[in-house]
């Protein structure tokens, strides 16, 4: 589709943005590298965290106490204040925490990819996030080693992992420092998930990152987000905007034949068509 037509057709994410302004914003984001988009998103997340902490901090409360209270409220848990670091260290904790987990997964020969908001940000529009979603082919024989190698630096429960593996569901781990939450999802054996693993890309999520991380392709994160949107009864505006962001960010590079094939197989083809319409481009 011609870029001028795309500018007229694409729908802004919010009512306070004109189509022309939205097109300029998308163009700015498209000019960024994958790593720059992710880095910008986590810069915004840390700014949002700092702002929220400042806004809710009581006069009698130290910065350390305010940070702890905010994280407890975010994740509905109790965390001792002496396990909290400075905001600067918390910013770095995303890369440190994810790299450690990925290193362990690869050492145990566990196939994985980073999905969810991190993947959609990489291909689409930056936004705030405090979660990292990891899809991993963890089996029962991996659980003891995985728990042993991560337990010093993460809140991790072997029983949670065991139940997730048994029911092909999910579990969470938390680094001992910082606001990050890592959600693990155990995939089932449907052909689509096999296809996703076969198409992963290794991407540097930070301009100074010591290593790349496995992410699904842009097409696959669109399909995965469509599945989550459908399973969530189509009420998540954020999921839908993430989908539109990837389409607008990658529209001239997307494999539309692949998208149409798997969307039909997954029974989300009408949603895919609507997403392309809302993004202002052709499927």
Topology:
Blueprint: H1 3-9, H2 19-30, H3 34-56, H4 63-75, H5 87-107, E1 112-115, H6 116-123, E2 131-136, H7 143-150, E3 154-155, H8 158-167, E4 170-175, E5 181-185, H9 191-198, E6 201-203, E7 213-215, H10 218-231, H11 237-250, H12 256-265, H13 269-279
Parallel strand pairs: 2-5
Antiparallel strand pairs: 1-2, 3-4, 4-5, 6-7
Helix pairs in contact: 1-2, 2-11, 3-4, 3-5, 3-6, 6-10, 6-11, 10-11, 10-12, 11-13, 12-13
Give a concise summary.
By secondary structure, the protein is of the alpha+beta class. It folds into two domains: 15-216, Beta Polymerase, domain 2 (2-Layer Sandwich); 218-283, no CATH class.
How many extended strands?
A: 7
Strand and helix order? HHHHHEHEHEHEEHEEHHHH
Work out the oligomeric state of the chains in this entry. Answer: single chain
How many helical elements? 13
The CATH topology assignment of the largest domain is Beta Polymerase, domain 2
Write structural notes for this entry.
With 283 residues, this protein is of the alpha+beta class. It has two domains: 15-216, Beta Polymerase, domain 2; 218-283, no CATH class. It contains 13 helices and seven strands. It has helices at 3-9, 19-30, 34-56, 63-75, 87-107, 116-123, 143-150, 158-167, 191-198, 218-231, 237-250, 256-265, 269-279, and strands at 112-115, 131-136, 154-155, 170-175, 181-185, 201-203, 213-215. The strands form two sheets. The chain has a five-stranded mixed beta sheet with strand order 1-2-5-4-3. Strands 6-7 form a two-stranded antiparallel sheet. Strand 4 (170-175) and strand 5 form a beta hairpin. Helix 3 (34-56) crosses helix 4 (63-75), helix 3 (34-56) crosses helix 6 and helix 6 packs parallel to helix 11. The longest helix is centred in the N-terminal third of the chain and has 23 residues, at 34-56.
């Amino acid at each position: 589709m011609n870029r001028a037509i795309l500018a007229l057709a694409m729908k802004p994410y919010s009512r306070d943005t004109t189509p022309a302004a939205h097109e300029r914003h998308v163009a700015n984001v498209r000019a960024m590298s994958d790593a720059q988009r992710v880095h910008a998103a986590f810069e915004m997340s840390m700014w949002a965290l700092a702002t929220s902490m400042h806004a809710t901090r009581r006069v009698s409360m130290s910065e350390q106490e305010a940070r702890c209270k905010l994280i407890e409220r975010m994740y509905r848990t109790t965390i001792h204040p002496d396990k909290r670091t400075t905001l600067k260290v918390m910013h770095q904790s995303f890369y440190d925490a994810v790299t450690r987990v990925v290193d362990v997964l690869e050492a145990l020969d566990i196939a994985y990819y980073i999905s969810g908001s991190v993947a959609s940000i990489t291909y689409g529009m930056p936004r705030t996030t405090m979660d990292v979603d990891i899809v991993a082919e963890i089996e029962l024989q991996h659980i003891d080693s995985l728990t042993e190698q991560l337990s010093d630096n993460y809140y991790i429960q072997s029983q949670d992992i065991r139940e997730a593996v048994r029911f092909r569901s999910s579990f969470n781990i938390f680094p001992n420092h910082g606001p990050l939450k890592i959600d693990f999802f155990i995939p089932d054996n449907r052909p689509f998930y096999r296809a996703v693993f076969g198409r992963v890309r290794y991407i540097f999520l930070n301009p100074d990152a010591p290593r790349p991380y496995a992410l699904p392709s842009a097409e696959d994160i669109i399909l995965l987000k469509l599945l989550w949107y459908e399973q969530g009864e189509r009420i998540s505006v954020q999921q839908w905007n993430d989908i539109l962001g990837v389409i607008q960010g990658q529209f001239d590079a997307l494999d539309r034949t692949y998208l149409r094939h798997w969307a039909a197989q997954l029974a989300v083809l009408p949603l895919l068509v609507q997403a392309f319409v809302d993004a202002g481009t052709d499927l």
